[in-house]
Every structure is written in structure tokens, then in C-alpha cells.
């Protein structure tokens, strides 16, 4: 099972405040522990929304809205993708998040990633093969 750990944005991440050396070291140790345990797939921090854009579609027509965005409680500052055996195992990893982050007041969200088998018969063998090709090419693009 794959899960995404979503690190919510706060006033500091939206202001572009970068982590200090202590937090970088703590996050590095946490990430290294997950890698050694064989659960971490990927993890990245995100620039603030002031450097981003939002694309909204209305009746199929896109409108681009440049950041920053007002509701920081719904914004994402970073993510980690993990592969574990259960939701409970994923939650145990979240509970180990470095307490230095955001002065101990960080908000994390856990979301399960859909797997091919979750889509049922509608995900035909042809569509599964296409998805496999896309993932293979995407891995080469990294």
C-alpha cells in the first residue's frame, strides 16, 4: 500500500522561510530511517504558493491564477510518498515526524494512493498496459 504524507503549509512556509540546520538534520535522519526500513519512495518540499499558480477550469476553459493563495490551512508545503503494509504502519511513521518542525505545531495529512486493482474491471488490460508504459517512462524522466 502506498500512502502520501502531506505536510500542510503554515505562515512560515508560505513566507519562504527555509528550515534551519537542526530541522534539516532531523528531517534527514527521519528520511534516512524510512529509506533504511524500505518504506520511503520519495519526499520533497515545495516552494511557497507565491511562486505557484492555480488553474481553474470552467466549462472546459482554463483560467490561470498566480499565487500566493489566501487559505494557507489548505495548502501543501511538502510531501513524502511511502510504501507500507497497512494504514496503521503509515500512521506510526507519521507519529515519528520530527518534533522540531514548525516548533512542534506541524499538521500532517495521510492519504492512501490508488493502486491499479482499486479501479476494477473498468481498468482494462489495455489501460493497465498504457499506465505501466507511462510509469516506466516517468521513472526514466527522474
Describe the structure.
This protein is α+β, with helices and mostly antiparallel strands. It has a single domain, classed as Dimeric alpha+beta barrel (Alpha-Beta Plaits), CATH 3.30.70. The chain is 32% helix and 27% strand. The chain has four helices and six strands; from the N terminus they run βααββββαβα. It has helices at residues 11-14, 21-36, 87-95, 125-141, and strands at 2-8, 40-45, 53-58, 61-66, 76-83, 108-112. The strands form two sheets. The protein has a four-stranded antiparallel β-sheet. A two-stranded antiparallel ribbon has the order 3-4. A hairpin with a 2-residue loop joins β3 (53-58) and β4 (61-66). The longest helix is centred in the last third of the chain and has 17 residues, at 125-141. It is globular. It starts with a strand and ends with a helix. The model has no long low-confidence stretch (mean pLDDT 94). Residues 1-107 form the YCII-related domain. InterPro entries: Dimeric_a/b-barrel (IPR011008), YCII (IPR005545). This is YciI family protein.
**What's the assembly state of these chains?**
single chain
Mean pLDDT: 94
Q: What is the C-alpha radius of gyration, as a whole number of Å?
A: 18 Å
Largest sheet, in brief, is:
4 strands, antiparallel
Structural class: alpha+beta
Contiguous runs where pLDDT drops below 50 for at least 5 residues: none
The share of residues in extended strands comes to 25-35%
Topology pattern, helix = H, strand = E: EHHEEEEHEH
Tell me the number of helical segments per DSSP (H or I, 4 or more residues long).
4
The figure for the number of domains is: 1
Fourth-level CATH superfamily: Dimeric alpha+beta barrel
- Count of extended strands: 6
**CATH architecture field:** 2-Layer Sandwich
- Kindly report the CATH topology: Alpha-Beta Plaits
CATH class designation = Alpha Beta
Distance between the termini: 22 Å
Helical content band: 25-40%
Which strand order does the major sheet show? Answer: 2-5-1-6
What is the overall shape? Answer: globular
Amino acid at each position: 500500500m502506498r500512502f502520501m504524507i502531506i505536510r500542510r503549509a503554515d505562515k512560515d512556509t508560505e513566507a519562504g522561510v527555509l528550515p534551519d540546520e537542526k530541522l534539516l538534520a532531523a528531517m534527514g535522519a527521519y528520511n534516512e530511517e524510512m529509506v533504511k526500513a524500505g518504506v520511503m519512495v520519495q519526499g520533497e518540499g515545495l516552494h511557497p504558493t507565491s511562486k505557484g499558480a492555480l488553474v481553474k477550469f470552467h466549462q472546459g476553459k482554463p483560467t490561470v491564477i498566480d499565487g500566493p493563495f489566501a487559505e494557507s490551512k489548505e495548502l501543501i508545503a511538502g510531501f513524502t510518498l511511502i510504501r507500507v503494509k497497512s494504514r496503521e504502519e503509515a500512521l506510526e511513521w507519521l507519529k515519528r515526524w520530527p518534533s522540531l518542525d514548525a516548533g512542534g505545531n506541524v499538521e500532517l495529512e495521510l492519504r492512501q494512493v490508488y493502486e491499479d486493482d482499486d479501479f476494477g474491471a473498468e481498468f482494462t488490460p489495455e489501460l493497465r498496459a498504457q499506465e505501466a508504459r507511462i510509469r516506466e517512462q516517468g521513472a526514466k524522466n527522474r
